[in-house]
Each structure stands twice: as C-alpha cells, then as structure tokens.
C-alpha cells in the first residue's frame, strides 16, 4: 500500500479512538456519580443524626465549607 493510505488509516483510527474514548469515559462517569453521589447537606444531616448529634443549619454549613476547602487543597 502507499504511504498516503497508511496515514489515512492511522488518522481514521485515531479519530474513532478519540470519539469512543470520550463517550466511554462519559458513560463511566455518569455511572460512577449515579452509584456514588457527591456529599450534600442532606447526607451530612443524616450522618450526624446517626452519630447522635443534632445538626443545626450553621453546623451543616460549616462542615460543607470545610469539606469544599479540603477538596480544593487536595487537588
């Protein structure tokens, strides 16, 4: 085969791989977030009740801020 055909096949394979990888990663992340949703204030409230604490709005807000700050620092 000629060099032009090889280059065309490589480019086509690359494009197919990129498109497939994008949609595969998107599907994986949707499934992951569905099974492991990010923590919200309702979840924190439930966890605090299970630990025997009475969650106040101020305390929930402080915990959410602390978690967001920690996630920013860990990146």
From TrEMBL:
Q: Where in the cell is it found?
A: Cell membrane; Membrane
Tell me which UniProt keywords the record has, alphabetically.
Cell membrane, Membrane, Transmembrane, Transmembrane helix
Pfam families, A to Z:
UPF0154
Question: What highest taxon heads this organism's lineage?
Answer: Bacteria
Membrane-spanning residues where?
6-25
For this record, the Gene Ontology CC terms, alphabetical, are: plasma membrane
User: Coiled coil where?
Assistant: none
Give the membrane topology: Single-pass membrane protein
Transmembrane is among the record's keywords: yes
HAMAP family in the record: UPF0154 (MF_00363)
Family under the similarity heading:
Belongs to the UPF0154 family.
Name the chain's protein: UPF0154 protein FC70_GL001500
> What species is given as this protein's source?
Paucilactobacillus oligofermentans DSM 15707 = LMG 22743
